[in-house]
UniProtKB/TrEMBL annotation, chain A:
It comes from the Bacteria. Pfam families: Pyr_redox_3. GO terms for molecular function: monooxygenase activity. It comes from Solimonas fluminis. Coiled coil: none annotated. Gene3D superfamilies: FAD/NAD(P)-binding domain. Keywords: Monooxygenase, Oxidoreductase. PANTHER family: FAD_NAD(P)-BINDING DOMAIN-CONTAINING PROTEIN-RELATED, L-ORNITHINE N(5)-MONOOXYGENASE-RELATED. The lineage of its organism: Bacteria, Pseudomonadati, Pseudomonadota, Gammaproteobacteria, Nevskiales. This is 4-hydroxyacetophenone monooxygenase. Transmembrane segments: none annotated.
UniProtKB/TrEMBL annotation, chain B:
This is Reductase. InterPro entries: Ferritin-like_SF (IPR009078). It comes from the Bacteria.
């Protein structure tokens, strides 16, 4: 390290003459940002700063603390392979346990000194003259860095839907990703809007806690049974003593999820089989014909995120719960008016309606070479080279960039290979002291043409609407293939596809 | 009748109303309740009307599953709910007039019960070509003519307030109905005819027809009983043929069949049609309700209460 963190912090960052230039600046302290820092440091990159707008680490798992919050990929796979945790208490751990795993990463790898909390990046611009990126934050500060890792999260901006009348509801409003732990649900009439991944975790808990729960569904999703179990003590002891056993389990889980890809990503006999499993699951848990019809999806399995739950269907049939499939006409001061003319009154509305996903823009302006603006180039859909680099934006690396989304496997499997790729890129810039490393426009175009060709045959592009697609049906979100294929393409950064400018 | 479906969907969303928008306790109730001659007949009529709306609702639910594109699917999902709203509003009127016994639903007549039964069992399996051709007929005759008749007969202002809203919805329904009827006529006639011939020997559809025909005749009888000029109903049936008879509509063999059958309904002298169908009405009247399967659970969603 060249300067002590103290000295760095006391320098007036606004004064660009004395502005410290970090080797790497990371936006966001969730799984992606922290994982990048860990791997970069191990590769010898020491001068790192992490800008985090919140006041704690953890991102998704800091924000999503609603009752029932848990991962829906087994924890042994939804964790870093380089930091196995023998102590997972369940197959699918809850939000708090995942958050404390992230906390333990921060402690174990001594990341705390790198993180600047309360620093929300509002603009990134590449300064050609000083060949560095300048990041402006909402707190009025500027940070300079040779390289930047974008790790601000694919699902980090909670969003209330733009429903008519949303402003006039006088009761309590809660977003699933901004849970209000002070609110007492006992005896309350609660409306839950949405039936996606978060909703089906929240609903069973709400039904236990609240007086009456109405669930407003627009489109049902496919629900598969969830093979959850509490980890027996012997297993934890085994994993502590023989880490190889745990990584073997991880391999098995990885293989199991990979095999689902055949059914989830493409229309194959396996899709029919999975749909059959989901139908049987529904049939075994819901007796009433009409309710089963309401809960049966019209879209192919895999077109939207597949849900996993054992207690969602049963909870909807409790005496204090009701599934409502009438479209919502408007919110009113006292509740929700649906199109069949009834006002469903509620004390509290829980919005499990998802996130603002910038499919055609960027969460804040990013200016590249010659002042080009990324959101303009992405107007019709986001594009990148191998999901990490974008031509014209040198030394800038994306995590969960365009077409990196897994439909069937742990996001962290994808993330790890992105990080390893990014480490190669950052090392090139720092070790060879490059002015910039910029991917060739042509390579990016060829890559995307191939991706879009392959996407055309997938379930996501089969005509159903989902948050994966832009309004015009462009898919800049998902990776059309197995995780293994993705990892293979990310193993090596091909220098021939980049210009390395000294 | 060409229509911009997306504009229509937006218009539908912008024209929503709720039971709570109407003051069900406003003055004027006595204009019905203090007219004993009208009262009893109206009670039966309202029950039928409400049930027909509800049956129409279930029809749209089936159509939503068949819709060829997302916009139409969304429109049908709304229509499903809107027909339910009409049924709910009509039930609220019955409540206002003291026509509901306790909290219970009015009893459906046996022909409606049969149609409900059929819809529940088979509607989802019928192709859009069948549903999309029958629904406009039901909408234009039953919904259309019955509502109009009601407004001519009843001068309770709350009833008028409710039906202003219901009729505005219906105008949009008819717009879409006939647009789809036209659309269904595209494609080679011989293919459509073959397809229809295949369907017509499908016992599930035959059962539907057996439920549908007596319903029309029975409604005619009920209306006459109530003092409706048969002509009103016939005008509506004729309108189906007129409005639906666009080039596309005429190419649709289902349209041809249904408008032909409509003409038979109108023609009282057509004994070949009416003798057997009236016999069916009488026959179905003999079915003991306890032999019918349990009422499907979607029926219990009906409510006259503006808030829940
Ligand atoms: C409820 C829920 C359940 C999920 N379950 C699973 C699962 O089971 N399996 C799976 O594979 N994936 C799951 N995911 C996906 C999950 O988002 C990823 O697995 C992963 O947590 C993403 O990590 P991240 O670090 O990229 O983003 P995040 O965890 O969102 O972290 C981003 C961080 O960046 C910060 N930030 C954002 N913008 C700025 C800015 N402008 N300036 C500074 N800081 C900023 C945020 O505050 C946040 O701390 C789930 C997501 C949600 C919402
Ligand atoms: Fe109606
Ligand atoms: Fe209608």
């Amino acid at each position: 390290m060249t300067t002590s963190p103290q000295a760095r912090r006391s320098a007036r960052p606004q004064d660009s003459a004395v502005l410290h230039t970090y080797e790497t600046l990371i936006v966001g302290a969730g799984f992606a940002g922290l994982g990048s820092a860990i791997r970069l440091r191990r590769a010898g990159i020491r001068d790192i700063v992490i800008l985090e707008r919140g006041n704690a680490v953890g991102g998704t798992w800091r924000d999503n603390q609603y009752p029932g919050a848990a991962c829906d990929i087994p924890s042994n796979l939804y964790s870093y392979s380089f930091a196995p945790n023998p102590e997972w208490s369940r197959a699918y751990s809850g939000s708090r346990e995942i958050l404390s795993y992230i906390g333990s990463l921060v402690r174990q790898y001594e990341l705390a000194p790198l993180i600047r909390f309360g620093q929300e990046v509002i603009e990134l611009a590449f300064d050609k003259a000083s060949r560095r990126w300048l990041a402006k934050t909402a707190a009025g500060q500027t940070y300079g860095a040779r390289t930047v890792v974008m790790a601000q999260g694919p699902l980090s901006n909670a969003r209330f839907p733009d429903m008519p009348g949303i402003g006039c509801f006088e009761g309590h409003k809660i977003h699933s990703a901004r849970w209000d732990h002070g609110y007492d649900f006992a005896g309350k009439r609660v409306a839950v809007i949405g039936t996606g991944a978060s909703a089906i975790q929240i609903i069973p808990e709400m039904v236990k806690q609240a007086g009456f729960v109405k669930v407003f569904q627009r489109t049902p999703g496919w629900v598969l049974p969830r093979p959850d179990y509490g980890t027996p003590d012997w297993m934890r002891a085994l994993f502590r003593r023989a880490p190889a056993a745990q990584s073997a389990l991880r391999q098995v889980l990885y293989g199991a999820h990979e095999s689902m890809a055949t059914g989830l990503i493409w229309r194959t006999p396996a899709s029919g089989l999975l749909e059959q499993v989901a139908r049987l699951h529904l049939r075994s848990q819901v007796q009433d014909d009409w309710m089963r019809r309401q809960l049966t999806p019209d879209h192919r399995i895999g077109c939207k995120r597949v849900l996993v739950s054992n207690d969602y269907y049963p909870s909807l049939q409790q005496p204090n719960a009701k599934l409502i499939t009438w479209p919502i006409a408007t919110l009113s001061p006292r509740g929700i008016r649906t199109v069949e003319g009834v006002e469903h009154q509620a004390d509290c509305i829980v919005f499990a309606t998802g996130f603002d996903v910038s499919k055609t823009g960027t969460p804040f302006p990013v200016h590249g070479l010659g002042g080009r603006l990324l959101s303009e180039e992405w107007q019709r859909g986001a594009q990148a080279y191998r999901s990490v680099s974008v031509a014209g934006y040198p030394n800038l690396f994306f995590t969960f960039g365009p077409n990196s989304g897994p439909g069937h496997n742990s996001a962290l499997v994808y993330l790890e290979s992105q990080i390893d790729y990014i480490v190669q890129g950052v090392r090139l810039v720092i070790e060879r002291d490059l002015k910039w490393l910029d991917v060739h426009e042509g390579a990016q175009q060829r890559y995307n043409a191939a991706i879009q060709r392959r996407l055309a045959g997938t379930n996501w592009n089969s005509g159903c609407k989902s948050w994966y697609l832009t309004g015009d049906g462009f898919n800049g979100t998902m990776y059309p293939g197995f995780a293994t294929q993705y990892r293979l393409q990310m193993r090596r950064l091909p220098q021939r596809d980049y210009s390395l400018v000294r | 009748m060409q229509l911009d479906l997306e504009k229509m969907r937006d218009r539908i969303k912008a024209s929503q109303w709720a039971l709570a928008d109407i003051d069900w306790d406003a003055p004027g109730r006595e204009r019905v309740t203090e007219n004993p001659e009208l009262y009893a007949k109206l009670k039966a009529f309202m029950a039928d009307l409400m049930w027909i709306e509800h049956v129409g609702a279930r029809g749209f639910a089936a159509m939503a599953k068949k819709a060829p594109n997302d916009t139409l699917r969304e429109i049908y999902t709304y229509f499903h709910a809107e027909e339910q709203r009409h049924a709910n509003a009509e039930m609220a009127l019955m409540q206002r007039w003291g026509m509901l016994d306790g909290e219970g639903l009015p009893e459906p007549n046996i022909n409606i019960r049969l149609v409900v039964e059929w819809l529940d069992a088979y509607a989802d399996e019928m192709p859009l070509s069948v549903l999309g051709s029958v629904i406009p007929m039901l909408e234009i005759t039953l919904d259309g003519a019955l509502c109009k008749f009601l407004l001519d007969t009843v001068d309770d202002p709350v009833c008028h307030a409710a039906f202003d809203k219901i009729n505005a919805d219906e105008a949009r329904h008819l717009g879409v109905d006939f647009h789809v009827l036209e659309m269904l006529g595209h494609g080679p006639i011989y293919r459509q005819t073959l397809d229809m011939a295949g369907r017509l020997i499908d016992p599930r559809l035959l059962m539907g027809i057996l439920a549908y025909l007596p319903l029309l005749n029975r409604m005619r009888d009920n209306l006459v009983e109530l003092g409706l000029k048969e002509n009103k109903l016939y005008e509506a049936i004729a309108k189906y043929k007129r409005v639906g008879g666009t080039p596309g509509g005429r190419r649709n063999p289902w349209f041809q069949l249904i408008s032909r059958q409509g003409a038979w309904v109108i023609d009282r002298k057509n004994v070949f049609y009416h003798a057997p169908v009236d016999a069916l009405v009488r026959l179905t009247g003999k079915i003991p309700p306890r032999l019918l399967p349990q009422i499907p659970s979607w029926v219990h969603e009906l409510t006259w209460k503006p808030t829940a």
